[in-house]
């Protein structure tokens, strides 16, 4: 299946094509092996996008698709994880993980339209993306098969490293971007939600990332010296509008909201992390991620939820968010358990409506205030100056009731007056 190069009459194949070194080399190699390669590039808002269709055709593709999936990506993949407060291992906002099912769904649709038997991607045999792409493919179209060059011995024995890929590209006339030092750029994956940097010097977890890895965020020492205040409106947990209160600039469609917050958040060095994470395949990896808009949206969404969600619903939702994040990271977007969790998450968001104001400055998104027509906050009850219908005489009975189990435990575990340990 994916561990060898199949033979047969129908060798039409859709390759998820980024235009980078790996997929450009793989496209040419697959064409040399007799595949009719249809290159498919998903426009998810990444910047390096010019001339990609022409490059695919020059590299050996018989046809090239370039589809604008920006609104679909933000509305149907980014916003659901914002509603669900998904975050992997407490830090990673899942920017790469989210893109894979979005790309796979469109890739499968093209494969069906073109009568293809195979799909392919450029992921390595050590990473998470191979799992994400292929689980999505098999969930959406059981009849398709995945051809993965990095798991085919003939391919990975020929290409032992990036220098072999570069030599092949040069031999075949495939243009590859080089940095100023005439070295290949870092391994990067970008979309409008985030950008990731991996490999090269970053493979040493002790190495400080070069400043050149800043792309979506300005280095902290060079960011704006004055703050920006923004206001974000939510409806059923989704951001529906954002406004810069300093300039009056607004955005109100999913893609434009994210682009707006990426730009302004990046100017303030918001949303950059450097982490070591646990891959699904069982190894640790180091990555530098920039997610300015997503970081701001998460902060605002958490805040409007605090105002509108019941305490116990919020706690249960937080427990489910851990599993939700794990499923997204591991590639189970199109799974029954994911469908169940998304319905559960969306049920909690029915009354998450309102607005949040934040100050953006020097790496921080600081909440200034919030309001909601569905607020559960009662100013009179919480006030130290107004009784507000809260009978303080009930507090003593509440406290004594809560203390009963503590007393029972002490009498059982520490009899005869022995003191409880301090920890």
Poorly predicted ranges (pLDDT <50, ≥5 residues)? none
Could you give me the name of the CATH homologous superfamily of the largest domain?
A: HUPs
Based on helices, strands and strand pairing, what is the structural class? alpha/beta
CATH topology of the largest domain: Rossmann fold
> H/E order of the elements?
EHEHEHHEHEHHEEEEEHEEHHHEEHH
What is the radius of gyration computed over CA atoms, rounded to a whole number of angstroms?
Answer: 26 Å
**In this structure, how is the largest beta sheet organized?**
5 strands, parallel
In the CATH hierarchy, what is the architecture of the largest domain at level 2?
3-Layer(aba) Sandwich
Quickly count the domains: 3
Q: At the first level of CATH, what is the class of the largest domain?
A: Alpha Beta
Gross geometry: elongated
Q: Which bin fits the share of residues in helices?
A: 40-55%
Strand content: 15-25%
**Spatial order of the strands in the main sheet?**
3-2-1-4-5
Number of helices: 13
Mean pLDDT: 92
The end-to-end distance, rounded to whole angstroms, is 56 Å
Number of strands: 14
Description:
The protein is of the alpha/beta class and 423 residues long. It folds into 3 domains: 12-185, Rossmann fold (3-Layer(aba) Sandwich); 195-309 and 351-371, Argininosuccinate synthetase, chain A, domain 2, CATH 3.90.1260; 386-413, no CATH class. It is built from 13 helices and 14 strands. It has helices spanning 21-32, 52-58, 70-84, 95-114, 129-140, 153-158, 162-172, 254-267, 292-308, 311-330, 336-348, 379-382, 394-413, and strands at residues 12-16, 36-43, 63-68, 118-120, 145-147, 187-190, 195-198, 228-235, 238-244, 250-251, 272-278, 284-290, 354-361, 364-371. The chain has a 5-stranded parallel sheet with strand order 3-2-1-4-5, with helices on both faces. Strand 13 (354-361) and strand 14 (364-371) form a beta hairpin. Helix 3 packs across helix 4 (95-114), helix 4 (95-114) packs across helix 5 (129-140) and helix 10 (311-330) runs antiparallel to helix 11. The longest helix is centred in the N-terminal third of the chain and has 20 residues, at 95-114. The chain is elongated. The mean pLDDT is 92.
